[in-house]
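Sample entry (584 residues):
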Amino acid sequence: MPKTSVADLFAETLHLAGVERIYGVVGDSLNGLTDSLRRQGKIEWVHVRNEEAGAFAAAAEAQLTGKLAVCAGSCGPGNMHLINGLYDAHRSRVPVLAIAAQIPSGEIGSNYFQETRPEALFRECSVYCETITTGEQMPRTLDTAIRAATGHRGVAVVAMPGDVALTSTEGVLARNGGALLPAAPVVVPGEGELAKLAAVLNGAGKVTILAGRGCRGAHAQLIAIAQRLQAPVVHALGGKEFVEYDNPYDVGMTGLIGFSSGYDAMMGCDTLLMLGTDFPYRQFYPEQAKVVQIDLRPENLGRRTAIDLGIVGDVAATIDAVLPRLTTGRDGAFLADARENYAKARKGLDELAHGKPGSGILHPQEVARVVSDLASDDAVFTADVGTPTIWAARYLKMNGRRRLIGSWNHGSMANALPHAIGVQASAPGRQVVSLSGDGGLAMLMGELLTVRQSGLPVKIIVFNNGTLGFVELEMKAAGMIETGVALDNPDFAAVARAMGIHGVRVTDPAHVRAGVAEVLAHPGPALLDAVTARTELSMPPKLTLEQMTGFTLYAAKAILSGRGDAVVELGRTNIGLIGSLLGR
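Predicted structure, serialized as tokens:
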């Protein structure tokens, strides 16, 4: 049997698995693999400026396509940079393979230069993590890693010393891509479980559905069961892109950044039907209602709130199976009330998304609304955590073709731009818009160079409010004077131009639409530096007594500390919101 190098066989296996690109930073321990990629010419190397960004990019590619995506880091510090992005991928349940190069095999355990233990380092954020020590071992280990990542929808890590990659092997490729990547099963509950589910739902009066990202591909079934149950549909953030469009039963989102209508629909039901969601915030679950949860992952059942019935199954297949068992002719009064509440909540939020030209107060809500209005019908949005996620959740309109990607579970800063890189690299024909916070962008700002060098036409919208906004809000809600959150930012548009990226800066509502339009229409990468109000408030759907007391205490402390101007600015910026709250 002819021999080939381990690196060559490794690269050929990745190609057989459908891998089209690898995100990473080169290094001597990766030289064998990168040289194989160059010679074979089948897989692109995307040179990011930080391996963390490479892992984020791979996570976004996997989330967009549903296929295996790959990132790589050289030995020691190189692959250590991957870990934050891999945690994001792992907690987002997307198939990512990470290649962690290792020091020379004969030096492992000797405290050698750049020595780390990848198996220990990545164990917590992976479904599979192994080290290749011989050429004969490599094919089976890599095949297993690929199947683990795709089958379990998570991160698989393969560590490989650079010298092992250069050795010869008689290993062979998997016979075909189908053998390497078997199709995922469709899980349907048994007859007994379906009977229990139907009995609970048929006996319910006021049903509310809480839908999450597990409803991907189940839009028609979701609408059908909502119609049959006359149930308002509340969505978690991860379900927004799959749930809210073309949905006459939609009443908005719940949670800290949700709508009052979503909160009220949850609290007013006597039966809550959870579909494909692991919504984590316990305070937003009803305490008196019966709870039925359907999820593909049994470990999710009952994890966030006590449940009366847990069903393991695919959302679409389970609804298809139970729908014929559900009675018709339900009263629609509860749904009608929930929809009326949603219309009021939506109107109130929309009123906050309009600024007064010449005022110098640029509301971030207006920026997000205009971006949504002008972006293409199949645009992919990425959003940084914190306030950019709030504005994305409340003002971006989904239509079944648009996508919204973020670090919803891991909650890492600096995700939006690297996510956009992964999306744009894997979908070159689509418009990709990064909704970046000023703190998040600054944290991995070197990736603007990746965008420019790779010729990726990403559009970056920077919400430049000069603060770590969500943290500042949390401090104020707790009655604290904000500390350590201020950001002394540059002119991000000028920074972009210095890097060879088209840059536009907007400071007043009068220029928002023109600025957004210019950036979105630019044929290459472009950045909009939107200088938004620092003191913008984003209220949760229900203010608690503790939060109201906290804001009052903050105002008193600010005045006593000689910062009464901050309180005045808070009121000036949020006069519309304050008026709507007083009018409730």
